[in-house]
Amino acid sequence: QVQLVESGGGLVQAGGSLRLSCAASGSIFGFNNMGWYRQAPGKQRDLVAQLTRGGNTNYADSVKGRFTISRDKNTVYLQMNSLKPEDTAVYYCNADERVLMTHHWGKGTLVTVSS
Predict the structure, then answer these.
(1) What angle is formed at CA 108 by the lines to CA 115 and CA 16, rounded to 5 degrees?
(2) CB 53 within 8 A of CB 64
(3) What are the angstrom distances between the C-alpha of 14 and each of 48, 73, 80, 91?
(4) Bridge-partner residues for 113, per DSSP?
(5) pLDDT digits (tens, 9 = 90+) for 79-88
């Protein structure tokens, strides 16, 4: 089965940095789009950053210039710099499986930014 395992979340002070990683496995076809979403309590899950297999990127306006998404095979990373308290959320990795066109989610990793 497809499995997405996130790591790198934690507690950081405002202005600090974190690097999230997500390792996707379990697909014989591999993955196309991979990305990161986040969800704060009581709010919807929103796109943070997305990276296509072809290398195109898409960022939420609130993180442009601060976050960078990258990918190495089936592992996707999110470098988060200049973190703000408003970035506090559970961050979820997602991946689109090739051929089958199925969507998968990780369990999430909590990022807490203190002021």
Answers:
(1) 30
(2) no
(3) 18, 31, 11, 17
(4) 12
(5) 999 999 999 9
